[in-house]
Amino acid sequence: MVATQTQVDEVFLPRRGNHVSSVKSSEIVYSTIATTWRWMWPDLLMRIIPMTLVPLIYIYILHLPLSFLGLTFSHVPLHITLGLLVGVAMSAFAATYRKYIVGPWFRRPTPGDQLFQSFFYLFINAPAEELFFRGFMLAIVTQWTGSLFLGWLLSSVAYTLYHRLGKWNWRSVIGVGIAGLVFSLVYLLLPGPHSLVAVIIVHGFTTSGFLSWGDEVLYQGWRRKRAATP
Fold first, then answer.
1. Nearest-CA neighbor of 55 among 157, 162, 168, 131?
2. Calpha distance 179→89 (Å, rounded)
3. What pTM, to 2 d.p., does this model score?
4. Which H, E and C letters describe 142-164, residue by residue?
């Protein structure tokens, strides 16, 4: 079905179109690799690549070490273990938040598209966003002001509000803000030099839980409701 304009306001990513399903739909709208690639390739060019290059150019010009951006590999087993544990919990939180707070609209990814989107969120989107916001922005604000608190505050606010550029609705943005607080704590509180390893894992699981895995959660709710309907 095609959502009405009022319903489009409930769709957290309207740039992907308003052809969606809900728990009340009689048919399912599917997301495929082809439809995902139509929004993904501009996203790579306009967002992912610049967010990755800017921090690297900054440390190259100023002759700073990679560790300035959190690109270190200390306590790796601890970071991976904690990242997976917190990541699983955050993916469940994200899917639940989407189902009960954001709204019922979804597009079920095909199996291939589920893998495609999950790879993007886990291995491309999460590293790029964490490199820019936790690794770069938090570090440079702290460097310029001498205040870790200001670095944390401004990077967290910027991370939250930048999702409005993608026209995410405010309920989604509030969820992003909550997730951002968890990301910052994971990045700042683990022992040793700051490392992006754990927070990238947590971020990837959270985004997947909210988006592609969240679509599947909503679909399963739709399927159970249809099965229970006489």
1. 131
2. 11
3. 0.92
4. HHHHCCHHHHHHHHHHHHHHHHH
CA distance linking residue 77 with residue 83, whole number of Å: 10
Q: Three-state SS for 137?
A: helix
Where would I find the H helices in 11-75? 33-43, 49-62
Domains of the chain, by residue range, sit at 5-228
How far apart are the C-alpha atoms of 22 and 3, rounded to whole Å? 9
User: First vs last Cα of the chain: how many Å apart?
Assistant: 22
As a whole number of angstroms, the distance between CA 135 and CA 187 comes to 9
pLDDT score, position 2: 46
Residue type, 214: G
Confidence of residue 5 (pLDDT cuts 50, 70, 90): very low
